[in-house]
Each structure stands twice: as C-alpha cells, then as structure tokens.
Amino acid sequence: MTREAFDHLDDIAVSALRVLSVQQIEQANSGHPGMPLGAADAAYVIWTRFLRYNPEDPDWMARDRFVLSAGHASALLYSLLHLAGYDLSIEDLSRFRQLGSRTPGHPERGTAPGVELTTGPLGQGLASSVGIALGLKMLSARFSSPSFPGLPSRVWVLASDGDMMEGISSEAGSMAAHLGLDNLFVVYDSNRITINGNTSLAFTESVTSRFRSFGWTVFETDGHDKEALAATLEKAQESHATPVLVVSKTLLAKHVPGREGDHRLHGSPVGPEGVKGLLEALHWPEDSPFRVPDEAYEPFRRRARDLKAVYGQWQKNMAQWKQTEPEEAALLESLFDQPLPHNLEEILMEAVGRDQKATRVHSGLALNAAATHAPWLIGGSADLTSSNKAEIHGASFIERGSFGGRNIHFGIREHCMAAVANGLAAMGAFKPYVATFLVFSDYMRPSIRLATLMKLPVIYIFTHDSIYVGEDGPTHQPIEHLAALRAIPGLTVIRPADGPEVAAAWAWALQKKDGPVVLALTRQKVDTLPHATDSIPPVPRGAYVIVDVPTPHLVLVATGSEVALALRVSELLANEDLIARVVSMPCIELFLQQPTQYRRSVIPGDLPVVAMEAAVGLGWTRIIGRQGLLVGMEEFGASAPAEVLSEHFGFTPQKIASRIRTWYQKRSACKEDS
Predict the structure, then answer these.
(1) At the topology level of CATH, where does 344-520 sit?
(2) Is there a contact between 436 and 462 (Cβ–Cβ < 8 Å)?
C-alpha cells in the first residue's frame, strides 16, 4: 500500500472518530465535543501505532493500558473502542449518556471492555495511572527467571488542561518521577480552553517547566500533525528512565467552521449547523447518522493483525515459562487469585492477642500476620508509617529502579496516595492498603469515592480516630469524618473496639474483593472486651451483644474505644437498677445489611437505645430511632491530654450514666403521661 493510500485511510479513520463522537453527543443532546474533535489525531496515532491491545482478550495481562483522564471526552474513547473492534456496537454509541447504557457520560470501569478506570473528577485518571504503572513494575520485579515473558506494558494517558490544573496532578507527577516510572506516557491535549474561556483566565504557568522540574522527560508537538506526533512518540519511547509528558498542542472543536477554539463547545453540543459544517469540512456523507465506511476500520484492523502475532508469541512464551518455572507460575496465579488460608481469622486472632493495646497496634500485628500468607498484600503510609503501624516487616521499600518490595513511601501526598491505590487495585495483581490519620481522609475522599464506584478492594488504615488524639488539638481530632465516610455508598467503615475485633475486621477486609474497606483505629490503649476466650467476634454481622441480661431496660450501643466505656456505664446504671444490654457495633453498614430477625435479636424494637461514639451523630438515627439518645460530639475538639478531654466533653462513665438516667426518667414520664 502506498504512502498516499495510508494517509487516505488515516484521514478517513480520524474523521470517523470525530464524526462518531459528535453524533453521540448530538443524539444525547448532551456532552463535550470540543476535546474529541481536537484530540482525535493524537488518540488515533496512539491506538494505531503504539498501543498494545487485543480486543478479543481485553484483560490480556501484557496489554498496554489506555486511560482517558479527561473523562468528559468519553465519546472519543467509545469511538476508539468501537473502531478498534471491542465489544461496543454502533447501537451502544447511539445510546450515549442514556440510562443503563454501556456508554455513560464519563468512562466507568466495568461498563464496557477497554475502559480501565472510572474517570470524571479531573486529575484522577492521571494519578491512578501512576498506580497502574507502579503495579506493573512491581509485578515484573517478582519474577527473576530469564524465561519470564515479561510485562513490557506501558500506560498511556490522555489528559487535558483541567487535569493539569488540579493539584493532584502535581502530587502524582512528583511521585512518578521520584520512582522513575518510565512505563508511564502522558499525552497532554493542550487546547488552552476551559468552560469559562481561555486558560489564560486562571492558568498561566509553564506545565512543561513544572514537569521537567519533577524529573519528567517532556516533549512538545503539533497535535494535528499525525506524522510529527508519531515521530515524537517514537522518541518518547526511547529509554529515558523517567515518565514522559508529550504536550500535544491542538484546537478545540477542530474542523467545526467558525467555531474552532470556541469555549462554548467545550461542554455543549455543536448543534445542527455545526454538524453540517463539520461533515462538509471532512467531506463526510450526510445520508444517515452513525454510518461508518468500511475503510475507517482498516487502520485498526491492520494494527490488530500486527498485534495478533505479538499476542500469540507472548502467550506461547508464557505457556513455556509456566512449564519450566512451576513455582513462579503458581506465584503469578496467586497474585491475581489472591487466595487466603481457611483459618485466617484464627491466625490473626493469635497474632493480635488479648493484651490492652491501641487498636492501631493490633492492626499492625494483624497486617504482618496476614502478609505472611498474602504475598499480594502491599501498601504504605503518607509519611506516618510508624504511627499508623503500616509497615510489612522484613519486606523492603519500593525505590527507584528497585520494585521488588512490598512497602511504599507515599510521602505527604494523601490525595495522590489514594488515587495510586486505585490504580494498584485496578491493575489486578495486588491488594493495596494505604494509611494516614483519620482526619486526613478529607484529602483522600474523591479517590475513595471513585474506589467505591469501581468496587476496588482497597483497605484504608485510618488511625488516631477520635478526640483522644489529645494534645494535637482540633485540627487533628476527627469529629465528622466517620459520618462523612459512612455517607459514601458502598464503602464499608469498621471501627473495631479491641484486638479480637481488629483481627476479625482485617480478615473480613482481606476477603472482600468487591469494594473498599476503612479501618478506623485508636491512638490510645483500649480494654479487651469480655469475649469468650475461643470466640471470633462476628464483625461481619456489623454488631453483636457483648453483655446481655435477662430483662434489659435499654440497649447501649457503641463503637471502637467507646465500647469499653459503655461497659463501665452499664455497671454504674445497674447499681441503680437500670439494666442495660451492651452492644458492640463495629460497622453500621454491615449491621443494616443483616436480616431483620438478626437485627432485632441484637437491638429489640421495644427497647430504648443509647448510642455512644466520640464523633458527630449524623446517621445514628438509623440505629437508635428518633426517640433514642446519642452521646456524641457537637463541636470540634480541643488541645489537651486525652483524659482531660474525656472529662471536658462528658465522656466519662459517671457523666454518661447520669445523662442516661435523666433521659430515661424523662422518657418514662412522657410515656406514662401519654
């Protein structure tokens, strides 16, 4: 085929990307046409000349990952997937942004093959891609035999001006360069337009200088010159031992006559006249929407044919490696299957023991016991490793050029840390945990929310979980954070009360494969609850009775460090013939998922309920009802020793018992009057 013929097919295929993207948006009367029109050339070059993939095996281990960090340009991604032969039909494209479709407004992992990450909030895709790139490096480093086929996979990110403005891109860019992730390639579609207008309204920095200062290798090119772009990407793939940023300078809404660079087309359909002008400019037939000439598929088919040989050879090499290296092959399989011993709970219970320790200390013991049986468990802390008890002892830390360890120094980058964890989990071979103080979960919340949307099995170790942080004061004392995390659908928040509950919580979190788990842990020592010596606390049921009595007058429900406090309160109340059942509720969400019969067996519907938690009470009415009593926090904390704060905020057995007696008497009097 002549060069002219290739160019002709290239032009037809790129035009198909533009037209299909715009037609999706017009059909839905909703979407962002500007970037798909401007970035089509760059996306096309990446997919037809550089990206390694197999639409017949979308989860091929050695594939490259393509991440659309600028999720608002989703119509472009769907057009690419369709033309490349993935299971995404023209009908799917025609249902863009419709209820239940496989083509939602922003890419969602799991809705269509080839969508690696859920992206929407800008910067998230770029930051999570750092996690994917890191995970691929860590996975490759586990296997030393020369016959291992290797994972030459690259992570290709298409990012936008908005991604570069969000602060998380700087955190992620800094970390990627520090680790020397040379398998990460970010193509920055620099069209210099946002919703409000030109980026100069608010963004005048030199992105190239910023990323060069991090330690990236940076190129600039004309994003509409396919050959220049391809030549730049060829140079980018040369060994630089750094991540690569390619600044692709483009025009928003390319080929829409009179509207190129018009900021209004960032997020609004081009309209009938705009579509007509676009089709004329591209010499595209107007006879029917979503009609794609067969020639538009040919460059993608050509790429598929070339990659089929690559795929086949890699699979052959992998099969041979499995035969010659059965032990390493078994390890590889275990990293993805992530099996656990059948007696995991007993193993962790023995590890944590029953001594009076802070639950963060119990957690560190459980983590290390689990790590012995789970080579796929990896993670780290945001510069609080010793405080969070988040190190796997005996394992090395990941360093530039040395990726065989299991511990990660994230630095003081909580937001990036959470996004990187999403990428590590999405890569599939590891179950990541990340750690910091509970109060700093605010910095991580957008990434945590996306983890729940993607059902990624990330474990969050959040220590220093209440006012008992003490002298650090209200800036470091979480008050609203438990409620805020519990408000995220699909996120399981567990606040264990002692060592056995920590062991049971860790066991459940390790087994959970369809969503993230928060472990909220104390700084201070806690008493061990009166469990049966050989029993495993039923943490997966969310709540259970710690102390029962034949005919209770009320139920005391508490979480975490307040469970031991509830036991002392019940003893004081009993001295005045006010008898209470005491319930430990490590997880509200899991309890509410239990059958009604079990919930009623723990908290009978005819008994008044008191909840105790050193935090704001938002959400507790689901447990105590409108007539129940909440003993919680209604203000920020203060800087003082923990025991002083207990007295000041009313979290002593005597003060709580007195408050409950008064409340119970008033409640009883009201019932008699009625």
Answers:
(1) Rossmann fold (3.40.50)
(2) yes
